[in-house]
């Protein structure tokens, strides 16, 4: 059982479109994920219309968080639940839902961390061009101001956009996530717009009196397929795009040198200053390393993701390499030390499909092993001087896992998607004991 530095935050995370359900209730407007799931239904035919039905079971889920003993809970706010068309009149019932959630969390001694955008763009904005249309970044800033005005007095920390690289490169680059555009390198325009959205939201939250504002960027160590210079080069380019494209503008106010020329025509005077707002924490979402090879010359992009052999895998097929997290954190600090605020692992977790056995026990030992090993990797990085202040398990509940539907289960709590009954898994009890031991150790 890893013992963490004093004051280390142990939390859990979720996202609105993945757990709330109630997608057409109380004035919520549609988001791009309802549209995408209709056009590209996951293999199990599910969509987020019910998910874990958190919208109707929020009290039960907050009670689970309190029982788990986490000190903080990261959730996301559905833009189209608060602003059904993404701008214009506020949907009072929507904002009231998050107001009540924040109050319940505080009553249970939990520090709320709120994400403003977790992949669920209001469909009305997408109909107007989505993140390709510069008006969307402006609307995002306004939305941040509205939510900040209501909640900044009680929310402890904020994340404007979760995994902007996923939103840009999978949503607009290769179209494997909502909204599903295949723009390839033309998606770089969307990268810049998401960053402008981030900058505007940070500014609006600061104005509203936000206590702490950070980010939650998805990072992965990039391993070239071979030592062939073509693979090494492809790996470097992918690293600049996947890891550097949001990190460097946010922390350094410039794009990675090897791709910056591709951005010159997109950057207007003042844009990079707007993007590079000081952050109170740097959020890292970590899952596994990515192996990259050079792609054939006729491929739309010069790199391709390659399978990684010889490592344990989750039920989603993602490789389990805790050492890579430690290495990535140490390298990250060495490279960006001067500009780096404290780090928080805003997401780490794994998908294992095991369900309740005949006794009703969900024996997810593999998840316990995954979390234990990754927490130890964080502790080792801290021992090497990396300033990591927190770790949020993805996820509290089994939810709607985007293109994978309900089949991939990341939760510490099992959700029966027929009855919506919640069953804490063995990993829930294990994590609760890690937290209790941590509390005991600081006395
Ligand atoms: O933006 C994010 O934080 C992620 O995409 C999550 O929503 C995923 O569910 C998780 O990464 C597991 O795949």
Automatic annotation (TrEMBL):
Residue stretches in coiled coil: none
InterPro entries, A to Z: GH, Glyco_hydro_1, Glyco_hydro_1_beta-glucosidase
Pfam families xrefs: Glyco_hydro_1
Molecular-function annotations in GO: beta-glucosidase activity
Catalysed reaction equations from the record: Hydrolysis of terminal, non-reducing beta-D-glucosyl residues with release of beta-D-glucose
E.C. number(s) listed in UniProt: 3.2.1.21
Keyword set, alphabetical order: Carbohydrate metabolism, Cellulose degradation, Glycosidase, Hydrolase, Polysaccharide degradation
UniProt similarity note: Belongs to the glycosyl hydrolase 1 family.
Record-linked PANTHER family: GLYCOSYL HYDROLASE, LP05116P
Full protein name: Beta-glucosidase
